[in-house]
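Hallway conversation turned thread

IA: we were arguing at lunch whether anyone had actually written out precorrin-2 dehydrogenase end to end. Turns out nobody had. So, for the record, here is the sequence (256 residues) and right after it the structure tokens. Reply here if something looks off.
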Amino acid sequence: MDYLPLFAELKQRPVLVIGGDEIAERKIKFLLRAQAQVQVVAGTLSPALADLAARQALSWRATEFSESLVDDVFLVIAATEDEALNQRVFAAANARYRLVNVVDNQALCSFVFPSIVDRSPLLVAISSSGKAPVLSRILREKIEALLPTNLGRLAESASYWRNHLKTRLTTTEARRRFWERVFTGRFASLMVAGNHAEGEKALQDELDKPERETGEIILVGAGPGDAGLLTLRGLQAIQQADVVFHDHLVTPPVLE
């Protein structure tokens, strides 16, 4: 694994961007969505960035880059076509242990931007570690088509109910089983369909049901051993199981 996947909270944190053209513009829009305090160093700005600066959505310094600018920021992004400048930015950030991304130059990156499917607060990030960005984009488009646009509302509702559940279901195991039921049941279907009031009622009804004290046994056929041939239901059963018994014919990829 070339990179450790992380989600960084940038809210009100200073982020330095060197460059003011369309390349920088794409990165800055992501940073602003994450509520970062964006500081741009560039001789000129693209029309879109100039508009953001005029509305004080970002701060702009029309000066040359100085290594000292890196001292008080959380992240650094170089989005210029000046290779010598990009190298200086990378060296300055690296010397100060700041995470740095030089656009389109993986060798000068200590972090990379993934392709993102945004169903806030639910986020799916896909990265090829900078090796095949087009492949990452294609996978993102496929996942985007699979995930309903209302999925974020489902996550928001779950967040609201979490503290209440702790007083009703006192063990971690009981809460896990509850969420597995509701996320694969009527509550999830109603929320994704936009029927939020009925969805909340379905969750309350599920919470009021007495929890089963007896378990169940599910038999999953592993076929010829190829994990890709497992059915979706079989995969879900394995993932949700408390205990998995298997014989020596089941291959490690299936168990993983």
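OS: looked through it. Strands lie at 14-18, 37-41, 59-61, 75-78, 99-102, 115-119, 122-126.
IA: good, adding that to the notes. Residues 115-147 form a domain with the Double Stranded RNA Binding Domain fold (CATH 3.30.160).
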